[in-house]
């Protein structure tokens, strides 16, 4: 049974991810074409390199330093999932906080870990008084199915910085 807890800056290092496998085999993606959501064949393997993990650790440390939160899911003391939320609110009415990461190790997917991490992230944002969680989500159909199941819909306002970082992502929101 997974254990969930907030991560601290001192434990954030690349070694924390020694038993975490990001690998995702993607065949189809959901993309907006001429204003309509369409499923397109776009096969690739999404995996992280050592430098990607190093960059991730820097980003997560920055999240904590700026008042955000990083949640970890552990099985047998090994990190198998994590989620992060930035504390800074944005949007025309300050209605959003961004879920900047939500990842589950490939060996633990489809067991509810992602849902628990998502709800922990939503509670963090809700407790700080924002109305919506913003997600710039991977466009893989499986990822989109997860967020749809959680109740996410297309964002009413797009975060242009997120769109610039990942132009193929789907911009979603979750009403808290």
TrEMBL record:
<dbReference type="InterPro" id="IPR016181">
    <property type="entry name" value="Acyl_CoA_acyltransferase"/>
</dbReference>
<protein>
    <recommendedName>
        <fullName>N-acetyltransferase domain-containing protein</fullName>
    </recommendedName>
</protein>
<dbReference type="GO" id="GO:0016747">
    <property type="term" value="F:acyltransferase activity, transferring groups other than amino-acyl groups"/>
</dbReference>
<dbReference type="InterPro" id="IPR000182">
    <property type="entry name" value="GNAT_dom"/>
</dbReference>
<dbReference type="Pfam" id="PF00583">
    <property type="entry name" value="Acetyltransf_1"/>
</dbReference>
<feature type="domain" description="N-acetyltransferase">
    <location>
        <begin position="14"/>
        <end position="173"/>
    </location>
</feature>
């Amino acid at each position: 049974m997974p254990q969930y807890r907030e991560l601290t800056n001192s434990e954030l290092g690349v070694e924390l991810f020694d038993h975490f496998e990001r690998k995702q085999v993607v065949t189809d993606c959901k993309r907006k074409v001429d204003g309509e959501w369409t499923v397109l064949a776009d096969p690739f393997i999404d995996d992280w390199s050592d430098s990607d993990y190093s960059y991730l650790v820097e980003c997560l440390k920055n999240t904590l330093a700026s008042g955000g939160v990083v949640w970890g899911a552990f099985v047998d003391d090994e990190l198998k999932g994590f989620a992060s939320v930035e504390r800074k609110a944005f949007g025309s009415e300050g209605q959003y906080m961004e879920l900047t990461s939500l990842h589950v190790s490939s060996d633990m997917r489809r067991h509810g870990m992602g849902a628990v991490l998502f709800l922990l992230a939503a509670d963090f944002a809700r407790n700080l008084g924002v109305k919506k969680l913003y997600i710039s989500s991977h466009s893989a159909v499986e990822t989109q199915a997860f967020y749809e199941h959680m109740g996410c819909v297309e964002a009413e306002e797009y975060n242009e910085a997120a769109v610039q970082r990942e132009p193929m992502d789907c911009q979603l929101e979750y009403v808290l």
